[in-house]
């Protein structure tokens, strides 16, 4: 079975680990969000791709969900001693090496997809990890600070400001000019099932879908497209998805997110048991729905979610 | 008193520490060799400038004479895990931060001289440290390996091959097109004394002198130019200077090195007491010479050497 998964960072990576356990023999292609990529200290950092790679490759810091395990922070301390920032983005020494290798390869002319493949040769994530695009896409968030409206990089909004002010707009700058990376449309076209993990619907999956051609390819693939709600009981399971949902005028409910994707794209939608009452309304909108436990407390619980997603996909197909 | 010092790496840096003790109120400008700069992992590394900066700024690894004290090697280990080399150049985590800052500033368009000034704002070396040039000069060494003649980067010859084969030629590639960095000629023109520490006469001081305009400015400055022999008893005090001296047809003796610089450039020359017999010959070649202990065993011994150099300069002037 060929499965295509659109993934952001932590939520996507953890779901993939469950999926690998639920369907060990499946051929999984992951299309990763690169809209939150950022240049720091002259180095190209791809937080979502790295989180997937480190999580599936056994190098992730389990507790925080991003960055490397057994990490140290000598380089960061020295950069601060030079007065070079930003200090709010916590890159560890081991993590720096990844960005150094990536930046060197990009500088030598390799596209991000080739670089990602080279990095994965070490990590052996057990999936094919593709960036959504080799072109630069950078998610910016419009905010108002001290009465002045300005646009900040998504990481500045998310990590530095901790989404403490309202997001007035979310713009994937460059997306309209970006092309899907080599292999992306082919993987979608060859898929048996397409899954949306409980990743952020705006700045993760929404950004991937903003690359011209990807949304259309998914809608036209003629295979079940099943998602898992990142909203449980009217609040994001983790992160601050409500902030960016509000920016695009979508309520933070499992129903509203499903309707935001829409029945033209989404065939099936899993909501948490606490949202069981929403199932009928979602099915009324033309999207088959089920209520199951959606907390990724451990790999077994996550594998159960993945099995339910695959079961719902088969139900849709039949 | 305004002193200009031409410096390579370890020998130059240690001499400068002694000079600072011997002449604490002097205004010292250091013209640093950049011919052994190298790009590693996409980062610009300037070994000689950093050795001077770390040594005078209190951050040097005293035992090995280069690199940072209290160093760790997480980044290097990770790069090796990615299969990315070279592994023979030992960059530590703290040191990496310096190269990251430098590379980012160069990428932003700052010349190396401005970058060096910015780095020194942290280290406060107590001297004005100038790269010999903002232009790229790269010392290559011609060698014969397995019957095949090839040119390798100086660092590859020095660090990887440990100068284990003969150097057939030493070429400062790009030197003929390089311009002295801003401030270099001005500092030479305003100097009261110019000193050559016991640095490598070929790949350190020789490279600096190969930048068009610098040798001429020193010869024309009309102030005493005094050097200290890096050769003691027919062998280099440290390093493998004999290998590169042979490549340019100069014997590894204090006398031969003095004659290589020549009386047109050099006014005074300090040799070690074991080479006292050479003094007469050197003076016969038109260069005033003295025999004193030339081992930089500690800062006090080095300060004594610096005082002797300054005394010889005054003797020359009188």
From TrEMBL, chains A, B:
Which cofactor does the UniProt annotation name? Mg(2+)
EC numbers listed for it are: 2.7.8.28
Pathway(s) the chain acts in: Cofactor biosynthesis; coenzyme F420 biosynthesis
| Record keywords | Magnesium, Transferase
Q: Does the keyword Nucleotide-binding apply?
A: no
Q: Where is the signal peptide?
A: none
| Catalytic function, reaction form | enolpyruvoyl-2-diphospho-5'-guanosine + 7,8-didemethyl-8-hydroxy-5-deazariboflavin = dehydro coenzyme F420-0 + GMP + H(+)
Any single GO molecular-function term of the entry would be: magnesium ion binding
Binding-site residues, 7,8-didemethyl-8-hydroxy-5-deazariboflavin: 50
Q: Does the keyword Nuclease apply?
A: no
GO BP annotations, alphabetical order: F420-0 metabolic process
Q: Its domain of life?
A: Bacteria
- Name the InterPro entries for this protein: CofD, CofD-like_dom_sf, FbiA/CofD
Q: Which PANTHER family match?
A: 2-PHOSPHO-L-LACTATE TRANSFERASE
Q: According to its UniProt record, which protein family does this protein belong to?
A: Belongs to the CofD family.
Record's subunit section = Homodimer.
Q: What does this protein do?
A: Catalyzes the transfer of the phosphoenolpyruvate moiety from enoylpyruvoyl-2-diphospho-5'-guanosine (EPPG) to 7,8-didemethyl-8-hydroxy-5-deazariboflavin (FO) with the formation of dehydro coenzyme F420-0 and GMP.
Among NCBIfam families, the record links this protein to:
F420_cofD (TIGR01819)
Would you tell me the protein name for this molecule? Phosphoenolpyruvate transferase
Query: What taxonomic lineage is listed for the species of origin?
Result: Bacteria, Bacillati, Actinomycetota, Actinomycetes, Kitasatosporales
